[in-house]
Give the backbone structure.
Amino acid sequence: MDIRDAVALVAGGGGGFGGATVRRLHAAGAKVVICDLDEAKGKTVADELGDGAVFVQTDVTDEDSVRSAIDTAAGLGPLRIAVVAHGGRGGPRTLDRESRPAPQASFTKPIDLFLGATYNIDRLAAAAMARTEPLEHGERGVIINTASIAAFDGTIGQAAYAAAKGGITAMTLPLARDLAPVGIRVVTIAPGTFLTPAFGDADPVQLDAYWGAAVPFPKRMGRAEEYAQLAQHIAENVYLNGETIRLDGALRFTPKGGG
Ligand SMILES: NC(=O)c1ccc[n+]([C@@H]2O[C@H](COP(=O)([O-])OP(=O)(O)OC[C@H]3O[C@@H](n4cnc5c(N)ncnc54)[C@H](O)[C@@H]3O)[C@@H](O)[C@H]2O)c1
C-alpha cells in the first residue's frame, strides 16, 4: 500500500507505540487521526505535526466514541490503516498473599479494555475500509493490532493481560479470513519490553539496564520507533496477512518477566 494516499487511525495515538506510529505514518505522507483518552497527550502529538494530523478524544471502551473517531477518519479520505495501540492496566495475581481470590472484575476489565476494544475498533474500521475503492491487488486496508509476548509467555500476575493479548493473537487469522473477501489485511505485533511512558516516570537508563538484561540481542529494551518501523512495513507489504509478529530481540519471559 502506498501510505502517501492513506488515511490512518491510531488508537492510543498519544502514547509510546501510538505516538511513534502517528509520527512515522505522517512523515510518510498519511493523514492521521490520533485517538486517545488523554487529551493532553493526543493534542501534543497533533500540534507537533500540524496539517494532516487530527486529534479526536476517544475512549476505546466506548462503542459510540470509537464510531465517531472512525467517522472523522473516513471524512478525511479513504481509511486504509487502523493501528490499535491503546494502553491500560492488567490484573493482579490470581491469589493474594492470604490466598484470597482476585475479584472476577479484575479479569474481565482488562479483557474488555484490551481484547474487546480491539475487536470493536477492528470491526468498525473494517466496515469503513470496505466502503472504499480498492487499490492495486484489490487491497482496501490493513488493520494492525498490538498483542504482547505475554500472549505466549505471560508472567506472574498476568493471567488477565495474557488472556487478552492471547485473544488478540488468536483472532488475527480468523479476522484476516473474514476480511479477505473485501481486501483487508490483519496483522498483529507482539512486542517484548519497550521503553515507553507505560513504564511511568522511572529513570530510562535504569529501566533499560533492568529489562534489557534479559534480552538476548540487542541487550536493551525496544524503542517505540522500532514498533512504528514494523507498523509501516506491515502497511506497505501487501503479502503480510493473518500473522502475529514477535518484536522482542528474542526475549522469552521467565515467570517474573525479567532475566
Ligand atoms: N511498552 C511495552 O513494553 C509493551 C510491550 C508489549 C505490549 N505493549 C502493549 O502496547 C500497547 C501500547 O503500549 P505503550 O507502551 O505504547 O503504552 P503508553 O502508556 O505509552 O500509551 C498508551 C496510550 O493509550 C491511551 N489510552 C489508555 N486507555 C485508553 C482508552 N480507554 N481509550 C483511548 N486511549 C487510551 C493512553 O492515554 C496512552 O496515551 C498496550 O496495549 C500495551 O499492552 C506494550
In short: Strands lie at 7-11, 31-36, 53-57, 79-84, 141-146, 184-191, 194-195, 222-223, 243-247. Residues 3-247 form a domain with the Rossmann fold fold (CATH 3.40.50.720).
